[in-house]
Amino acid sequence: MASHFLSESAVQTTQVNAVVDQYLDRLARDLPGTRGARASALDEVRGDLREAIESHTARGLPPKLAAGAAVAELGPPSMVAEAFAPELATTQARRTLLALLITGPLVGLCWLLLLAPHSWPARPEALWAAIPALPLIGVAVAAAAVILATTGTLIRWLPESTPGRALLGTAGVALVCVLGDLTVLATLAARSLATTWQPPLALATVAVAASLIRIPLAWRAMLRCRHSMKYLTHIGRTPRTKTTT
Amino acid sequence: MRAEALKGHLDALLLAVLEAGPLHGYAVIETLRAGSGGTFDLPTGTIYPALHRLERAGFVKSRWHVVAGRRRRDYELTSSGLQALSNERAVWAQFSTAVSSLLSSHPWLATS
Predict the structure, then answer these.
(1) ipTM for this model
(2) CB burial class (10 A; 0-12, 13-18, 19+) of residue A3?
(3) Which of A149, A154, B27, B57 has a CA that sits 20 to 30 A from residue A14's CA?
């Protein structure tokens, strides 16, 4: 008898898990954004689904029906994914920008030490001439600061950037990083080949390696932003499946 | 009620629901549903992005807990959120008074 109840309980648990897993699998397929942000959203939905199932079970529903009711309350996975999309897009933009802003000065410092002429504190124009990527970097940092300000806590006072604009700006900043790295690499190559200048080998190795690592990462970040922008545009054109309750 | 009808008011409603103390997403929607007498019966999945946006704005903060062996994210009001709720209440009181005044029947308008 006890084993009968045990096996029945195990069957019910399996049925509930199947409903939850199927829902989360479909939601995971539809959710846009970075892997970390998607995993966090799925974790949250999973935890609350379990809460909802417990709540329905406590009210007397059999476990399988309770799981079905909890899933129905959440809404269709495609609709939930669409609801999450703008927020996940903003998170993606902010995380990408923060990564670029944190790594940027490290890479930039290597190139500054390598390419900056000794006279640059007295003659700033010499620095601009020696590192042509500097104006680009300045524009990228300013753009990143504006996007972060208009998507963070400052939105209480500043007009909030739309997710699409935040992604577009982030993609632009990532592209500028790629162009900036290519420019300094080309500058180093040109100076090494055209003059007798011998760059410090260790510093040059670190700077070149840093840029060669960052170029594909920034390029991939840009492509991901473009992909998320396409998704936002797509759901903007697709009518919601359910908006009434 | 249509979800669109809540647009512009959802933030204030969520802040009000969280005023009593920290809640997880499902409890937020249950409180919203119960507190409105079943009028605001939104799909739970659409509440999370609104909560995340409020967190980004600094009006709520969230914490992950492990409850009964599973991870759960609780939201709670910050001092900025409390201030924002107070502002929203003042704006709503002014707005609803004006709308009620205009929507209520005024026989003198028809006869004047």
Answers:
(1) 0.81
(2) exposed
(3) B27
